[in-house]
Amino acid sequence: MNVTTVRRFWKKSAAVVLLGVMMTVSACANNEKTPASTSTSTEKEIKVTTTVGMITDIVENVGSTHVKVTGLMNAGVDPHLYKASQGDIKKLDDAQIIFYNGLHLEGKMVEILEKMGKQKPTVAVSDKIDRKALRSGAEMETEYDPHIWFNVKHWMKATEQVRDSLSELDPAHKEDYKNNAAAYLVKLQELDRYATEQIALIPEASRVLVTAHDAFGYFGDAYHIQVKGLQGISTASEYGSKDVSQLRDFLVEKKVKAVFVESSVPKKSIEAVIQGAKEKGHQIQIGGELFSDAMGKTGTPEGTYVGMVRHNVDTIVNALK
Ligand SMILES: [Zn+2]
């Protein structure tokens, strides 16, 4: 069993256990001859399907008890390379509304998302962000850098998008969506402040963030740290020996102490750079694992957007300070 199969297995087992519990509960209820009319859950939840975990997290926070969210991409999954399975297409078909990142993050799902857009609200959470605030440039494979969640202020805009789209679909609960979003936005505001304060603790000369792929551009711009990735904006492009040697020379010249691996990108690419620097007499540590395009496992602190960003900030500061 590979990691994904194991996770699916546990998910399935958990579902079976849960079903068992639910059956037991309903059996008890039947024994007490409770009339159906006293059931507390008469309202129907809105069925929402999302792509990456960071968006799932927004919808759960803003939608709360009024939504049932199904996220397609779990921990460790790379959205650039992700293709929708038959099961995913059913989850998209079943949804009343779909939220995705857009800006070509879900590069292999463009066609299916366009198709869904003709049938139901299919919303890119990046839509509210001013295009002038987005990173773009000739060196990028896509028009804009899609990793907007790494500037917490952009993710606040994404939260407002989710709030507005849910309110439009389900105006009866507009007030709840507004209040839930406001509470979540306060947390994000605090997170933004935390990132700014913490990154500033790294001495300026050491403020260089080197990762496997170029996911942290917005993070670098927002929190004032220079960012270098071995691969480009998307992991779909191959990196070559020239990229490895260029990055190696940069690390040796700048005397960078630590580089970082990403949970959704294989480690071998960044290890090749470390080995190259070692051959040139410069020792580099792996500063830790960052969550770039996927959150941590559900149930762990890094399994939420706020926890993921805090983990990244703490890991970076501890390694470079
Ligand atoms: Zn990425």
Portion of residues within helices: 40-55%
Q: What is Rg?
A: 22 Å
Mean pLDDT: 88
Shape: globular
The first-to-last residue Cα distance is 40 Å
**Approximate strand percentage:** 5-15%
The ordered string of helix (H) and strand (E) elements is: HEHEHEHEHHEHEHEHEH
Q: Are there runs of 5+ residues with pLDDT below 50, and where?
A: 23-41
Ligands: zinc ion
**Largest β-sheet summary:** 4 strands, parallel
Structural class: alpha/beta
Q: Count of helical segments?
A: 10
- DSSP summary, beta strand count: 8
The spatial strand order of the largest sheet comes to 2-1-3-4
Write up what this structure looks like.
The protein has 321 residues and is α/β, with parallel strands linked by helices. The chain has 10 helices and 8 strands. The chain is globular and about 65 Å long. The chain starts with a helix and ends with a helix.
Short description:
The protein has 321 residues and is an alpha/beta fold. It has 10 helices and 8 strands.
Core attributes:
321 residues; 8 strands; 47% helix; binds zinc ion
Give me the secondary-structure topology:
Blueprint: H1 3-31, E1 46-50, H2 53-63, E2 67-71, H3 86-94, E3 97-100, H4 110-117, E4 122-124, H5 152-169, H6 174-199, E5 208-213, H7 217-223, E6 226-231, H8 241-254, E7 258-262, H9 268-279, E8 285-290, H10 305-320
Parallel strand pairs: 1-2, 1-3, 3-4, 5-6, 7-8
Helix pairs in contact: 2-5, 2-6, 5-6, 6-10, 8-9
The chain binds zinc ion.
